[in-house]
Amino acid sequence: MGATLRRLSEPARPAAGAPALRLPGTGDWTRPVPALTLTLFLLPIGAGLLGTLLPAFGWLPALGGRALGLGPWRALFAEPGLGRAVLVSLVSGVGGSVAALAVVVLFCAGCHRSRLFRRLRVVLAPLLAVPHAAVAIGLAFLIAPSGLLARLVSPWATGWTLPPDVAMVNDPWGLALGLGLAVKELPFLLLMTFGALGQVQAAQRLRTARALGYGPATAWLKTVLPAVWPLVRLPFYAVLAYSLSVVDMAIILGPSTPPSLAVLVVRWFYDPDLSLRFVAAAGALLQLALVAGAIGLAALAERLAARLGRRWLAGGGRGGGGRAADLAGRTAALGALGLGLASLLGIALWSVAWRWRYPEALPSVWSAQTWLRHLDALLPTTAVTFGLGLAATLVALALVVGCLEREQRGGRRPGRGALWLLYLPLLVPQVAFLFGVQVLAVRLGLDGGWLALVWSHLLFVLPYVFLALAEPYRALDPRFGRAARCLGAGPDRMLWRIRLPMLLRPLAFAAAVGFAVSVGQYLPTLFAGGGRVATLTTEAVALSAGGDRRVLAVYAFLQTLLPLLAFLAALALPAWRHRRRRGLRLPS
Amino acid sequence: MIETLRWFAVAFGLVLALGGPVAPARAAEPLTWDQALQQARGETVYWNAWAGDERINAYIAWVGERVKALYGITVEQVKLTDTAEAVSRVLAEKAAGKTEDGSVDLVWINGENFATMKENGLLYGPFVRELPNFALVDTRDKPTTLVDFTVPTEGLEAPWGMAKINFIYDSARVHDTPGSIPAFADWAEAHPGRFTYPAPPDFIGSTFLKQVLIELTADADQLQKPVASDSQFARVTAPLWAYLDRLHPSLWRGGRVFPASGPAELQLLDDGELDVAISFYPSEAQSLIDNGRLPKTARVFVLDDGTIGNTHFVAIPFNARAKAAAMVVADFLMSPEAQARKQDPQYWGDDTVLAMDRLTPQQRALFTAIKSGPASLPPDRLGPVLLEPHPTWMTRIEAEWARRYGG
């Protein structure tokens, strides 16, 4: 039975396309691209980790640390609030990502037959584009005791003439942070799951199971989930790692005394008391261990679930009509997505409010002043954000296309190990290596420069671009290429004239994803930019510490708008280019 | 693969190299005013400044426009959430051996951050006496312009503004305000959940703790010297912790959650979550009313026996790239034009460091023309100024606060 399950859970490989098209080796520019990409990736992470590892054991001669020892660790464990900070990280990080996963499973199992299921695909991508900080800011506006939700029902329904004294945001356990993470990560997990469903012939599995009398939800859980999980596992680990070590959202939604571990580590790095640098390094490694431990536990839980699930699978229970599952899935998914959308609405309202006191449901005085007053500051910041995103996305796109093209020409697909490497920047907590990277960049004179900035963004943009582009690239019918070869086109001509134009839609989509990821980056911008480079995200997070809420809303709004425009462009460009090519248009 | 390994070897070497000996900072002769003026044109000053308040950011942007017009200097504000970030950056640069062309040219600073930079030799100067406008500063009646949290400035930082603790409340809702720290605890018990302070190490939160300490301890004079011993610290601060233990249960969120900063607390006041909030700028309430961020009924009170007041400064790191332009900007900040605009609640509402009797009648007119508004207390009703304790007290208090209430 174990073997059956394993076979079920193997991802179905698309039928191997063309037999390896061996090309004359000379002059093939794609050959060094995979190695180059990996170097660009591994170098900063490896060097950064080392730059964190050494001080964690007392080695940082510039600050007088010349003896290896456990001193930093003793100091770390003596820090007040450390235990609580770890707990906050666990509650919010594990809670948030498991909640997001649960909603995904519930929704897919319960609602896979509904129209909503198909429609949701369309709205997911733009939701994915909303930066983490913007979601957090909007959610804080929404759920605070004096926030939008309370204002809508007060005082007429609740009797609250003054906002209730309840910690809805910045609560000591990080529950609000967990909620924010769940809301933000849900679209990503859903999108990855939708992508995976296509690869495992979910429809056939369901048809077979349904023919055998299984209820719809049970059929999905028993036949599709085990097959889809291996493809969703890594994205889930990335979500888990990210949630455990997030900084920007934790600053906005999380508690402050103490904050989550990642925020504490960043605080120590920036403390004028230099001896705390060692504590910070040890804390960053603890953060790494926390993530590794959580992923290990997740793997263990998976084994356990598989073992327990076997009996359930083999038991043959057919399950009911799935009405309850449908309702639950619908409620959970729409609830979470609704919270996300309402957050954005709150941001939009605050950006044009002048006076808006509790308990008014809408602003009492409206004004465009906030926008007009800050226009001078907004334009250059937006330009920097845009330029940085564009540069990182273009470089990532070039590298990814190079890697995928290499794969086609070499006729070999990278193994599972390569996928893990690709995910590395998403799995290793940012605080664990960015500090080392910063010291290195200062040493090389790169800090604050565009090279360091684009490079640091690339680390996080590239994996997402790869994820978005790999499947469509591999799935392109190889016969187009063969036809071109028969007509005498060389491999490069085939790439430029056939493959890339045909793949314009996924290319544009991948670019939009990459751009959105870049716009949302907080810590990498902060570290690599030497604090000098302001993007919409760094400005928004800085303002969230209590600046003018209306200005904060303006920044958060723009921060959301930029990636949304990228997604619109990603839809419009192929549609326009392909307006005369029916075969390439989206089926309407 | 070999390639990759070689890359790693290079990276490893680089990281180890960071541990190499650090070149000692060159003690360059400070620039004279004339030299500074000559070299400043065309330079860009990266001014690292706490950016939690949009009004202050707008003021800094105005400074940028003015020095561009007057001296051809470009000012870029590097927005910080905590000034310690800038201190840390300069330290990191020193650690990496970057003794010139540093990334910080000017930093808004005082208190323990100044003490740290001074102690570690991270500051350029003395340069302040070279600045012509320094002669206008009221060093006699405002002694904190020369002594920052008991640490002598020794010309390493130029005074910029005067801060003083005051409390903002909404007079439409609150009719009784406490006049002392003990009375505050009674008031909070009578109005549970309606007062709080920003979590230390936010400077306003820390200052509130020092205010409590000064008012309650029997040994206030010992605060003017560094902390001598653990037992002394425990003895002197015991009344503070007893007070907080009593106060916290009646604070906002039962004292389990604290706002992140002063402006965040003022936002809570406007949201109706608080009745009383702490401010560090006597004209801040009026300024926030004018900006639509507090109700028109907001008013200010101070404590009968005085509240803590201090001076905030700007300083230049030892490795700043644009030292000349940074000096010129520091001088412009002390000019009557810049100081008067800063004191105007319409823009910021931060009191001037200048002595009115050292100004020309025209310069004085800039200050008398300022409309202070109904929510500002006139200087004679702001009460006595209490002196800041030595920075070591603040550092220890923050650590002890984190130990007691931060876990």
TrEMBL record, chain A:
**GO biological process per UniProt:** transmembrane transport
Q: Which InterPro entries match?
A: MetI-like, MetI-like_sf
Residue span, ABC transmembrane type-1 domain: 82-297, 378-570
Q: Which residues cross the membrane?
A: 40-62, 82-110, 122-153, 173-197, 234-254, 274-301, 332-357, 377-400, 420-442, 448-470, 503-523, 552-576
Query: What Pfam family is a match, any one?
Result: BPD_transp_1
Query: Does the keyword field hold Transmembrane helix?
Result: yes
- Note the topology in the membrane: Multi-pass membrane protein
What SUPFAM superfamilies does the record point to?
MetI-like
Location relative to the cell: Cell inner membrane; Cell membrane
Give the CC-aspect GO terms.
Answer: plasma membrane
- Keyword annotations from UniProtKB, A to Z: Cell inner membrane, Cell membrane, Membrane, Transmembrane, Transmembrane helix, Transport
Q: What is this protein called?
A: Putative thiamine transport system permease protein
From TrEMBL, chain B:
| Cross-referenced InterPro entries | SBP, YnjB
Q: Which Pfam families match?
A: SBP_bac_8
What is the superkingdom listed in this entry's lineage?
A: Bacteria
Tell me the NCBIfam families matching this sequence: PRK11622.1
State what protein this is by name. Answer: Putative thiamine transport system substrate-binding protein
